[in-house]
Design brief:
single chain, alpha+beta, Alpha-Beta Plaits, two-stranded antiparallel sheet, 9 helices, 7 strands, about 15% strand
């Protein structure tokens, strides 16, 4: 009976010790951690001390273990493994919830087709950037040339695959501190923080060169062209709407004149572009 009681307490102690790791991981989840879980960790430590004390008492006892002490040892065994199961199952549940929340957050902030940030995330990013009142940054609007023809000729599934490839290539040539987002259809908006001696024209040309690589499409090899409009904060706009609208006007000018990119200039809003300016859906911005 002495040996049985000691083994039961020792096994319960093992269960308690194993419960420390999942309890710690639960506390590490910042969005789920609370004083309750921290308190539980402290209680587990106190339980371990109590188990060690009772185990030492059993080992040093000069008297035979009675039935009551054996029952208590059984309770210690069950309690230790009960705490382990609770913490282990709680950790698994919280990990699943955390994974689900991250997935939902990613879906809420990213375009499902290309994996790029979506319009909402882009708006938040540009608004936050403006709120920091930087000396300057660039807003680029990119539109794929003749994308409707690709959809009409090869089908929307091939058009979607082309969009995915374009998004990957654009991201691959952008500076690390830039953000590219799909804000609709075949349109990609880009924010590039200003940096000393940064050549935005070179970045635009890098995008052009990346897109000039043939893309297989339904047994054919196609080359994607893009038109890029560039506006600079605060020179070309001091808020999100005006900055994106002016980049969009510059992009239209580039497309109309079949050039790769165009910086916004005030004369682009003159009468020859007035119809386009009026047609711009400013609610997109």
């Amino acid at each position: 009976m002495d040996l049985s009681a000691s083994i039961l307490v020792l096994l319960g102690l093992v269960g308690l010790s194993l419960s420390l790791k999942p309890a710690y991981h639960i506390c590490a989840y910042s969005q789920f951690s609370s004083k309750g879980w921290l308190t539980l960790m402290m209680l587990i430590v106190l339980f371990i001390v109590s188990y060690l004390s009772y185990f030492s008492l059993l080992l040093n006892s000069q008297q035979a273990i009675n039935f009551i002490q054996l029952i208590v040892s059984g309770i210690f065994f069950a309690g230790g493994w009960f705490v382990y199961l609770v913490t282990r199952l709680s950790k698994q549940t919280i990990a699943s919830m955390d994974s689900l929340l991250q997935e939902k957050n990613h879906q809420a902030n990213h375009d499902m087709l290309t994996g790029l940030p979506n319009r909402q995330q882009y708006y938040r990013h540009i608004d936050n950037t403006i709120a920091q009142k930087p000396e300057s940054f660039y807003c680029l609007m990119l539109d794929i040339n003749n994308f409707k023809m690709i959809n009409d000729t090869f089908g929307h599934s091939e058009g979607d695959r082309v969009l995915q490839i374009v998004a990957e290539r654009v991201e691959s040539v952008l500076p690390n501190d830039a953000l590219a987002a799909r804000i609709g259809g075949d349109e990609i908006a880009i924010i590039i923080p200003d940096a000393e001696e940064r050549n935005i024209s070179k970045t635009a040309k890098d995008i052009e060169q990346a897109l000039l690589v043939d893309i297989p499409c339904s047994g054919h090899m196609i080359v994607i062209g893009a038109s890029i409009g560039i506006a600079q904060y605060p020179k070309d706009g001091q808020d999100r709407k005006s900055l994106m609208k002016n980049a969009d006007i510059a992009m239209y000018h580039a497309k109309r004149n079949e050039i790769t990119h165009q910086y916004f200039q005030p004369h682009l809003t003159s009468s020859q572009f007035s119809n386009y300016v009026l047609e711009i859906d400013q609610s997109r911005f």
